[in-house]
Design brief:
single chain, binds fe (ii) ion, alpha+beta, Jelly Rolls, 246 residues, 5-stranded antiparallel sheet
Length: 246
């Protein structure tokens, strides 16, 4: 079952827009005119189209604890062999974690989750595979800039260790055109936001289109945040599904 996605609407450079709204002498007139329309139309509706999704799931507590015990032990062994990351700098593992024994159960959860997402998208029998899976360790002050994951169909994240101040991920409006005109608003909604902040916790898994730009704010907690990212692509796509669609 797909859950509601939007947990917090935000707007990039919000303080700037607050300033513009206060300085706008025409605001009152625009709102008065909007009220007159209600006497003209017998009915109104809004047709929503082309939605963007982020699939969100919480793993069962016992599954999450079992996976964490295994993967954190493995990550600790890897990290002991390398240098400590500089303060404010994140660390990423190699991209083949899905092939490790310690990550087998997590990979199985990812495969189940991707099946759910493909069902939701009404994509029929299509073989897929995890093309990459890696760990992110973000110590205090570490952030991750806006990015996407090219040459994949889906991307996702599993959260192994979060804390207050290191428990969100930002998703950015993929429609570049909407940034051209940004009038001041009285409230942030799904229709006028350009950034959605999704709150996560230990055991949360997110899956979203690989093209959907996302970012992570600086860790303001006192603990290192640990997440496992992954990418998914159709197997043998060129042979089975990439014929021209004209
Ligand atoms: Fe990412």
């Amino acid at each position: 079952m797909l859950e509601a996605v939007a947990e917090g609407f935000a707007r990039e450079r919000q303080s700037y827009y607050h300033h513009v709204r206060r300085a706008n002498p025409h605001r009152g007139r625009a709102f008065a005119m909007a009220g007159q329309y209600e006497t003209v139309f017998a009915a109104t509706d809004v047709i929503r189209m082309f939605p963007t999704f982020v699939w969100k799931a919480e793993l069962e507590a016992e599954v999450h604890k079992r996976i964490n015990k295994s993967l954190i032990a493995r990550l600790d062994r890897i990290r002991r062999c390398g240098p400590e990351p500089a303060p404010g700098r994140g660390w990423q593992s190699d991209h083949d974690l899905h092939e490790w024994e310690e990550f087998r159960e997590l990979a199985s959860c990812v495969n189940h989750a991707v099946g759910r997402v493909l069902d939701f998208l009404k994509i029929g029998a299509a073989d897929f595979e995890i093309t990459g899976c890696w760990a992110n360790m973000n110590p205090p002050d570490a952030a991750h800039g806006r990015h996407g994951h090219p040459n994949n169909f889906l991307s996702g994240v599993y959260y192994a260790r979060t804390n207050k101040g290191a428990d969100t991920i930002n998703f950015h409006d993929p429609r570049a055109q909407t940034a051209i005109i940004k009038p001041p608003v009285t409230a942030l909604t799904a229709e006028n936001t350009d950034q959605v902040v999704v709150k996560v916790s230990n055991g949360t898994m997110l899956i979203f289109p690989a093209w959907l730009a996302h970012s992570v704010d600086a860790n303001t907690s006192g603990e290192t945040r640990i997440s496992i990212s992954f990418n998914v692509m159709f197997s043998a796509y060129a042979e089975t599904a990439s014929k021209p669609l004209w």
